[in-house]
Amino acid sequence: MATKVFINLPVTNLAKSMEFFQNLGFSFNPQFTDEKAGCMIVSDSIFVMLLTATYFKSFIDTEVCDAHHSTEVLIALDAASADEVKQFVGKAESLGGKIYAKAQDHGWMYQHSFADLDGHKWEMAYLDMSQFPQS
C-alpha cells in the first residue's frame, strides 16, 4: 500500500512558484529539487512536485492543462483552526494568489480557497469533528 503522496503540478516559472510557496511557509527537499523540479514538503508523507511545463510534459501523452482556464484538480489541505485558514489564504492572496471562491463556514468546517500563480486551485479547511452533524 502507498505510504507517500506526490502531487505533480506544471509551472511556468519554477523559481517564482517556489518563492511563492516558500513565502507561504513551505520548504523544499533539495535532494529532489533542480532546474526542472522543486519538491515541496507538505508533511512527512505528502509532497508537491512543481515541474517546469516541459518536464511535466515528458511524463504524459496528452496536453498540459492550463489551470487558468480549466480545473483538473483541487488540492485541499487541513488547518489547525479557522484563523489559520484565514491567515494562510490572506497571505497567499498578498503574494499574488487569486481568491476564486468566498470563504464558507459550515459550522463544523471552515474553508477558503485560492489559485496559485499558475492557476492551480488550493483549498484550506479547518474541520471540527465534534461539531459534525449527526444523522
Give a structural overview:
There is one protein chain. The chain is built from 3 helices and 8 strands. The chain is an alpha/beta fold and 135 residues long. The protein folds into 2 domains: 1-60, 2,3-Dihydroxybiphenyl 1,2-Dioxygenase, domain 1 (Roll); 70-135, 2,3-Dihydroxybiphenyl 1,2-Dioxygenase, domain 1. The mean pLDDT is 96.
Any descriptors?
single chain, 135 residues, alpha/beta, 2,3-Dihydroxybiphenyl 1,2-Dioxygenase, domain 1, 2 domains, 4-stranded mixed β-sheet, 8 strands, 21% helix, 36% strand, globular
Short description:
The protein has 135 residues and is α/β, with parallel strands linked by helices. It has two domains: 60 residues, Roll (2,3-Dihydroxybiphenyl 1,2-Dioxygenase, domain 1), CATH 3.10.180.10; 66 residues, 2,3-Dihydroxybiphenyl 1,2-Dioxygenase, domain 1, CATH 3.10.180. It contains three helices and eight strands, in the order E-H-E-E-E-H-E-H-E-E-E.
